[in-house]
Structure formats: structure tokens, C-alpha cells
């Protein structure tokens, strides 16, 4: 492990997710670790309730001690948490065939505080007549995918009327970052930043289309403007206070 990197993030990547008729979103866990943390004498690891979560974040567990080896073990163990087993059983997936891969990368939150969390789907969900993307955005590091009770993310549509038109933003729902606070009266991000998020996502979808055979069988330059495309992309990204975007994950999305 590179000693110059203070914090690491060990992320899950199972073969029993992002597959036909089973996305597996949120079933497995990712854990942080610190390079300076040492293993205990027994080289044992355990999961404890994380007392460092910010207001609005869902209660979660962390590994103890917070070593790279314990984080790796924790991610592997999440393959067999109750919800993952139940979901795979319901989908009739053979548990003997599942496997877990890992993504080991430096933690992004050492660079700058998180200003917003977001999930972008490269189609307008439940609206086949509208061309564009669906953007779910939440303030600070509050979660979009597994919100705490009494909170929800902003829902904004970036719509286009044709190939030569710029996207227009329509906010259908404002965010409620904390259970004991009112719903926001404005969007989490300003229009310029939100439109940049949209344009960044377009670049990702174009690159993915060109790199992944079978994602879209027509001209990839037209993938943004085809409501009938068989799949879309689901991106998780963070917007940092220093103005940078961090794309955490890109997966295929079969929903409509």
C-alpha cells in the first residue's frame, strides 16, 4: 500500500449485480481504511456502528481496526449479508456461482468536502416521450441511494428537444436533506453546475457506448436522443466544494 495515501476506499464489485433482470444495487458494502492503522495482535476484524456519520446519513457500519486488510475482508463478507442472500434467492441465482471483485482506490474525501451527492440515469424514467436524463441530487454527503427516513433527494430532469438543442432543467422535487428540517426551496446546485453534470454524463455515455459492444447497436452519436435504446447508464457521482466531480460508479440500467 502506498504510504503517501492516507485513506483508501475498498469498493465491492460482484458478478451477481448489473446483470439481466437483476441489478443488485446497494446489496454489498464498501469500507474505508487508513494506511497508518495497524492490525491487532490477533489479526481479527469486526464490524461496529460508525459514529462518524454526518446528519442525514443512514446509519452504517465500519471495520475495526480500520486497516486495509479488514476493509477487504468486510467487503468480501458483504457478499453473504442477509439482504444479498435473500435477493439472490428470490431471483433464483445459484449462490455457488457468485464471486466478489474489489476496487481499491484512494479516498476522494481527503481532497475537499462533499458539496452534493448525485445519481444520474441516462434516460427520463417513466417518461418515454421526453428526451433527456434523470438527475437525483442531495445536499452535502447525504445519501441518494439509501436515504434516511424523512429525507429525500432532489429530482431534476435535463431535457432536450432534438440533436441541436441545449438541455433545459426542470426540477420536479426539491431535496429534504435532514429529517428535522424543511424541504429546500431551491435546487442543491446552481443551473450552470447542474448542466455541467449533464454534459459530463453525456461524455461518459458516449465513451461507454463506443467501448462496450452491444450497449447500443446504432451510431453512438445518437444514443442521447433515442428513447428506445435497450439500456441506459446509472452513474453515482459526488460534487466537491473545490468544484470537482468524482464519478464513483457507472453501471448499466435496464429500467424504463
**Spans of 5+ residues with little confidence (pLDDT < 50)?**
none
- Kindly state the percentage of residues in helix: 10-25%
Q: What is the tally of beta strands?
A: 11
Largest sheet, in brief, is:
6 strands, antiparallel
Mean pLDDT: 89
How big is the Rg? 19 Å
What percentage of amino acids are in beta strands?
A: 25-35%
The CATH superfamily of the largest domain appears as ATP-grasp fold, B domain
Describe the overall structure.
The protein has 256 residues and is α+β, with helices and mostly antiparallel strands. The protein has two domains: 7-108, no CATH class; 114-253, ATP-grasp fold, B domain (D-amino Acid Aminotransferase, Chain A, domain 1, 2-Layer Sandwich). It is 16% helix and 29% strand. The protein has helices spanning 68-77, 82-90, 191-211, and strands at residues 7-14, 31-34, 46-49, 61-64, 100-106, 114-121, 132-139, 154-159, 168-173, 232-240, 245-253. The strands form three sheets. Strands 9-8-7-6-10-11 form a six-stranded antiparallel β-sheet, covered by helices on one side. The longest helix is centred in the last third of the chain and has 21 residues, at 191-211. The model has no long low-confidence stretch (mean pLDDT 89).
Amino acid at each position: 500500500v502506498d504510504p503517501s495515501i492516507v485513506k483508501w476506499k475498498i469498493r465491492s464489485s460482484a458478478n451477481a449485480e448489473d446483470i439481466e433482470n437483476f441489478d443488485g444495487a446497494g446489496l454489498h458494502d464498501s469500507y474505508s481504511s487508513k494506511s497508518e492503522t495497524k492490525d491487532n495482535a490477533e489479526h481479527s476484524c469486526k464490524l461496529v456502528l460508525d459514529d462518524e456519520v454526518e446528519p442525514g446519513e443512514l446509519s452504517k457500519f465500519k471495520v475495526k481496526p480500520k486497516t486495509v486488510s479488514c476493509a477487504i475482508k468486510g467487503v468480501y463478507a458483504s457478499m453473504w449479508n442477509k439482504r444479498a442472500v435473500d435477493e439472490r434467492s428470490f431471483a433464483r441465482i445459484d449462490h455457488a456461482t457468485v464471486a466478489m471483485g474489489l476496487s481499491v482506490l484512494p479516498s476522494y474525501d481527503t481532497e475537499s468536502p462533499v458539496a452534493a451527492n448525485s445519481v444520474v440515469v441516462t434516460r427520463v424514467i417513466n417518461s418515454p416521450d421526453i428526451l433527456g436524463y434523470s438527475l437525483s441530487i442531495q445536499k452535502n454527503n447525504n445519501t441518494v441511494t439509501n436515504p434516511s427516513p424523512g429525507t429525500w433527494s432532489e429530482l431534476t430532469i435535463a431535457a432536450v428537444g432534438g440533436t441541436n438543442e441545449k438541455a433545459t432543467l426542470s426540477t420536479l422535487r426539491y431535496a429534504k436533506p435532514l429529517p428535522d428540517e424543511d424541504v429546500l426551496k431551491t435546487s442543491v446546485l446552481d443551473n450552470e453546475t447542474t448542466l455541467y453534470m449533464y454534459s459530463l454524463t453525456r461524455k461518459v455515455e458516449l465513451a461507454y457506448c463506443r467501448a462496450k459492444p452491444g450497449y447500443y447497436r446504432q451510431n453512438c452519436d445518437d444514443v442521447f436522443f433515442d428513447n428506445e435504446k435497450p439500456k441506459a447508464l446509472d452513474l453515482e457521482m459526488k460534487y466537491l466544494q473545490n468544484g470537482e466531480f468524482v464519478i464513483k460508479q457507472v453501471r448499466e440500467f435496464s429500467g424504463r
